[in-house]
Amino acid sequence: xxxxxxxxxxxxxxxxxxxxxxxPTGSGEGETTVAEHEGRxxxxxxxxxxxxEAGAWFTDPSGPPAAxxxxxxxxxxxxxxxxxxxPDSLVRARGPVPDRGWRRILHTATLGRIDPGPSxxxxxxxxxxxxxxxxxxxxxxxxxxxxxxGVGKTTVTACLGLALAEHRGDRIxxxxxxxxxxxxxxxxxxxxxxxxRDLLDDLDAIDSWTAVSRYTSLAGRLQVLASxxxxxxxxxxxxxxxxxxxxxxxxxxxxxxxxxxxxxVHSAMAGTLDVADSLxxxxxxxxxxxxxxxxxxxxxxxxxxxxLVSDAVVVLVGRAGREIDAPAxxxxxxxxxxxxxxxxxxxxxxxxGRIDPGxxxxxTRDAFLELAAAVAEAFPARVGx
Length: 385
Ligand SMILES: Nc1ncnc2c1ncn2[C@@H]1O[C@H](COP(=O)(O)OP(=O)(O)O)[C@@H](O)[C@H]1O
Ligand SMILES: [Mg+2]
Description:
The protein has helices at about 10-20, 35, 55-60, 65-70, 80-85, 100-110, 120-130, 155-165, 185-190, 195-200, 210, 230-235, 240-250, 265-275, 285-300, 305-310, 325-335, 345-350, 360-375, and strands at about 140-145, 170-175, 215-220, 220-225, 255-260, 280-285, 315, 340-345. The protein is an alpha/beta fold. It has two domains: about 10-95, no CATH class; about 125-375, Rossmann fold, CATH 3.40.50.300. Strands 3-4-2-5-1-6-7-8 form an eight-stranded mixed β-sheet, sandwiched between helices. Bound molecules: adenosine-5'-diphosphate (ADP) and magnesium ion (MG). Pfam families: CbiA (PF01656).
């Protein structure tokens, strides 16, 4: 039904239509127009000009039609509203644009006039990034552990750190607490001339960011602190020393990820577990790999760390053979812990050399982003949660 007292749609809709529903007046799927909200045919509320002057609502002292004034929840559109300066209303809001595939091609080819909207995968990736970027108050310590060596603990520490550092604005540290010449710095930066031992020797002098960054090296935006490289000296990395180093480092870093070394009973491990806010347990999707991860959880429960266990993220590294019942494995760890993340076998990681995130397969990158999201979504948004 045409209404004669409405403004010229070409003028009104172009200028102000977006204010009413926060979206541009395109033809994208999922967009709702005012008319749809009101249960009318889209655009039917703004028919071809039937008479009256363009913008008559705004110049007519009697204001908008009574029907429009009476509608609850509708934003005021009279002169008073126009006078109020609202910066947000001056910028047309846009929904997410398709980032790849046929959706992107169609959107680009039609200059956005046909917008199929983002795919489910794009929305899932956006959601994952939002979780990686979860707000964090204070410092959060993540301990990466396993009962068995060679299962992928150092690799998981490195890639988790890289993923968090790439997508978060705060300072992230990957710390090697292996008592036996750990390889974390080799995998990330190749610089291990300054180690946690040097940091401990100079602890009292570390009173600024400049001072602490003398002991770390940088992989992308991730700070890396190497472990003592002399295995004989490693045993001297005691629980007390770990705690002293931790206390100083926590003044400078938001997230501290510790590659804890093999086994659960070495002395630095006790310090790591004392202060850990969350735990990543690394295992493999094999009978023995999963068995050891499960035993790690049993050991932690037996030593009073139930909270860490129920909040832990289990990472299963490598491909599950055909004979392995992968869903049962996921169910087992999913029942005991907060999340299970499967990291596929990756030829670049299998070299055991320096990790270049750009050379990881997309599925591997996604898996580490998922791990980063699973870890970050447990970050406390307030101190003292
Ligand atoms: N997802 C993966 N795909 C292929 N190889 C991997 C993967 N994760 C780890 N590796 C390789 O397995 C070996 C042991 O990994 P590492 O992280 O050093 O284990 P840990 O620290 O538990 O001893 C290394 O050569 C490493 O590069
Ligand atoms: Mg290691």
